[in-house]
Design goal:
By secondary structure, the chain is α+β, with helices and mostly antiparallel strands. It has a 4-stranded antiparallel beta sheet with strand order 2-3-1-4, sandwiched between helices. Helix content is 57%, strand content 9%. The longest helix has 37 residues.
């Protein structure tokens, strides 16, 4: 566009363009503030005891940061986060400690590195209440009757995989041979720490699609957590080749999104089934948030 040599933009078009640039600058500033708050919150939460760094980042975390940066009340966003934490398997104490870390970051403004002193008792009661109630709604629903299908990926849930493992262990006991002789567990874990917003959900959808393509012969697939999936497959010579194929399929699918390309190569592990069904259940619980 030609700009008059004697001055800046003027007139109605100039005013509109100036306003547009101002909005863009404000949006960019808000985005930087959101990322900075998110990083400080994560640092504080991990330092105060969050056990599994890979499952801290959720789209609901971004929603809370956005509400705070834009000067809105965080209650609605915290309700979503409380629900998401429960669905991901975080306990109530851990969820509230994470909220306390956020409050400490906001309250202790002199700290720019996220190293603060979270205190649940110092967190505003109304924020604790809405987060705890939302967490309890989901947690109690899970206790009452676990869903067998994950609505995001379409894969069975961990509850289904527990049931399937129970069947295999009963058969192994009847046949007087270890369950690990006939089946193995392939675990796919992705680190979405560097991915923001809904890219994490997109990543899980793409990963589930890859699993369905590679394991299409009757293997048991399941979602274990917000960044973890598993395949219960026969223990034979073909499982290693399928694991290699799955890695290639995952790499190709995740390459479609810039943020997902930056998460790195998904971690694939072949795990031997433990000696008892109870131990297998404990293993799934651990893997859910690994």
């Amino acid at each position: 566009m030609d700009v008059p040599a004697t001055g800046g933009l003027s007139g109605e078009d100039g005013e509109h363009q100036g306003a547009g640039r101002q909005v863009t600058r404000e949006s960019a500033a808000q985005e930087r503030s959101m990322r900075a708050l998110r990083a400080r919150w994560r640092t504080a939460s991990l330092a105060s005891g969050w056990r599994f760094p890979n499952d801290w980042a959720l789209p609901e975390v971004d929603a809370v940061c956005a509400a705070l940066v834009r000067g809105r009340g965080p209650e609605h966003a915290l309700t979503g986060l409380g629900r998401a934490r429960a669905a991901a398997g975080a306990g109530l104490a851990e969820t509230l400690a994470d909220l306390a870390a956020l409050h400490a970051v906001l309250d202790q403004v002199g700290s720019t590195d996220g190293f603060v002193s979270p205190d649940v008792d110092a967190t505003p009661p109304r924020l604790l209440r809405v987060t705890a109630v939302a967490w309890a709604d989901v947690a109690f629903d899970q206790f009452a009757g676990a869903e067998v299908t994950d609505p995001l990926t379409g894969l069975p849930t961990m509850a289904y995989l527990r049931t399937r493992l129970g069947e295999l262990y009963r058969q192994a006991e009847r046949d007087e041979r270890p369950a690990a002789e006939l089946h193995t567990l392939l675990v796919v874990a992705m680190d979405f720490t560097a991915a923001a917003g809904w890219s994490r959900l997109t990543g899980m959808i793409l990963a589930a699609d890859a699993l369905k393509v590679v394991f299409d012969g009757g293997e048991s697939l399941a979602v274990l957590g917000p960044s973890t999936m598993a395949v219960l497959a026969p223990r034979d010579n073909g499982i290693a080749a399928k694991a290699v194929l799955l890695r290639r399929e995952l790499t190709e699918r995740l390459a479609v999104d810039r943020q997902l390309r930056e998460v790195g190569t998904p971690r694939l592990r072949l795990l031997r089934l433990p000696g008892t069904h109870a131990q297998a259940g404990d293993l799934l619980t651990d893997l859910r948030r690994s």
